[in-house]
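Bench log. Compound arrived from synthesis this morning; before running ITC I wanted a structural hypothesis for how zinc ion sits in the protein. Inputs:
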Amino acid sequence: MRVPLNNSSQQQLTSTPGTPATSASNTVEADVYICGARTKKGTPCSRRVHGPVRCWQHKGMPAMLPQEKLLIKDLVP
Ligand SMILES: [Zn+2]
């Protein structure tokens, strides 16, 4: 009784169609903004929020910066 040990085992390594590693698990870090509301110092708040909104502290206040300046995408290259 012979078991053919040819390239049958190697085919499994190369023929695996890209397993979805981390792309489908998390959709949270898609858009990250900063709050951007004016603080007491006169500088835009740099607290991070998920979406073009203000943070809990500056809710209802307008942002100092345009929305395109609030969007940060440099978390994961
Ligand atoms: Zn804020």
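What the model suggests: The helical segments are 8-14, 67-70. The chain has a mean pLDDT of 78.
ITC booked for Thursday regardless.
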